[in-house]
Structure formats: structure tokens, C-alpha cells
TrEMBL record:
UniProt protein name: Tr-type G domain-containing protein
Lineage, broadest ranks: Eukaryota, Viridiplantae, Streptophyta, Embryophyta, Tracheophyta
Full-sequence range covered: 420 to 716 of 716
Domain of life: Eukaryota
Family: Belongs to the TRAFAC class translation factor GTPase superfamily. Classic translation factor GTPase family. IF-2 subfamily.
Domain Tr-type G: 8-224
Amino acid sequence: LQRSADNLRSPICCIMGHVDTGKTKLLDCIRGTNVQEGEAGGITQQIGATYFPAEKIRERTRELKADAKLKVPGLLVIDTPGHESFTNLRSRGSGLCDIAILVVDIMHGLEPQTIESLNLLKMRNTEFIVVLNKVDRLYGWKTCPNAPIVKAMKQQSKYVQNEFNMRLTRIIMQFMEQGLNTELYYKNKEMGGTFSIVPTSAISGEGIPDLLLLLVQWTHKTMVEKLMFSNEVQCTVLEVKVIEGHGTTIDVVLVNGVLHEGDQIVVCGMEEPIVAKIRALLTPHPMKELRVKVRFL
Ligand code: GTP
Ligand code: MG
Ligand code: NA
């Protein structure tokens, strides 16, 4: 199969940031699910994954009336934990993604694992978008469910707008201290050396259309070559576990190529290579979190 711009794979996007900045909640907001509330202590402790088909992204960005013509079939989003003890999982997540979302709590600014995540992304030269989440916590915020952020911002009082601008400026300064230029995405026309910031609320959905549109436009603009589907299997193992009724299962992210039932696979073991045959292939439903093990396709 010839690699071509008409046959792209889904970009893999990793969501990273300090604990409790709202990474899982943002995905819940897009999925229309409630995964976060089911987590022990409200803390993510594993890598998660969700597939967002192109049509769902198109629906969610419609209000922006922008060119959301999607050439990619969808977007695979990897959720990572923000708790300090899971550096290894953040490293895995950032290692297998094409792009990343770095989530910052607008009320807290940059925190230790924000900076750690930032350094992981810098190390691998991974492009990312900054999400400034929890804008609904600005005192006096008027909720505009799922509205594009510019529209939502226009609904706010001068007082709220001032507080927003003050916090934004402070956070831009904090990024500058880390050696990074950042700017609100709608003021950042270049998409070059300056990283884009998207304000959001994972509770009421403001800014979510903007985030999705930006992710898609940006992958089209900067990585078509990298996203051309290739027949050569490229697959990363996330987790190995025994599931009742299925025996030993491995969670994988299939980046390129095709897997079939009956295929022989070789994976790295602790002592030696493990040779196995694929007995069954299961995929979570679109818009469902991999970690919630119910009814796979
Ligand atoms: P870890 O995965 O444990 O690092 O946390 P996380 O970044 O996934 O954050 P999570 O989604 O668990 O959200 C943490 C808390 O913040 C929860 O109580 C959420 O309800 C709350 N929260 C998340 N996003 C928002 C938001 O936009 N606005 C408000 N008001 N609360 C939010
Ligand atoms: Mg989480
Ligand atoms: Na959390």
C-alpha cells in the first residue's frame, strides 16, 4: 500500500498535567461520560485511551464555522495521571503521542507536574497545546454551556474579564520563566514558535469546540507526512493483565498496520521475548474510555 495524504491514520494525542487540573474531566466532557467520578479518590492511576471519530469532532466544532474538514479518521486521546508518583506513565504517554495537551488549572498556574510534563515534551520535541482549565471558577463566571471561548468571554462582566486577563498574563509569565512563549490561540496566528493557549471549562464545556478544532487543524497543518498510514505494524503495549473470560490480555495502541486474529506476535518480556498468538481482538466503543472494561467491540 502506497502511503498517501488521502489515507491518514488518527493522530495520537496525550493529555498531561498536574494532578486534579481536570484532564479526565475534560475527556468526560467531550465523551459525555462520568469516568472521573468513578476513579478511586478521584485520582487517575493508569493510562487511559479514548477514540474520538471524526464525525463526533465535526459535530462538536460546528459552532465555530471554521474549516473543520477532517482528513484524519479521528483522534485517539491518551489520558495520563497527574499524581507525582506516576512519572513513568506520563513518560510512556508522552512517548507514544504525536501531539499533547498540557492542562493548567487557571486558579493555580504552573505546578510541579506541569513543569515535569513540560520537560518530557521538550525532551522529545513534542508539539502541544496549553489548556487553561476551570475558567468557570473565576468569580462571577456566567456559564455558557459548550460555547466557543470567544463567545463565552463576551458574555462575562468586565470584572471577570479582568480577572481572566490578570491570571492569563501571570501564567504566560510563568511559561516564559520555563523558556516558552505562549499566547491565547486566537491571537496566535503563526502556530510557530509560540504555543497556543485554549481556555476551557470541563464542567460547562466552554472552549471545548476550540480545543478540538485546534487539535485537528494543527495536525493537518504540521504532520500530514507523519500521519500517512503505513502497513508496517507499529504497536505499543500499555498494560498486561488477566481478565476473567479472556485470559491474559494486553492493552495496546496500534499506530500503524493491521492486526488479525491468529497473527503471531513477539513482545518484550522481563527476561526474554514472549511469542504469542492473537486469540481475539477487542476494541473499546468510540467515545468510551479503555479503562472502563465494559462491552468491547
Ligand atoms: P488526575 O488524573 O488525578 O491527575 O486528575 P485530573 O487532572 O484528571 O483531574 P480530574 O478530572 O480528576 O478533576 C479534578 C477535580 O477538578 C474534580 O473534582 C473535577 O470535578 C474538578 N474539575 C475538573 N475540571 C473542572 C473545571 O473545568 N471546572 C471546575 N469547577 N472543576 C473542575
Ligand atoms: Mg485524571
Ligand atoms: Na483527579
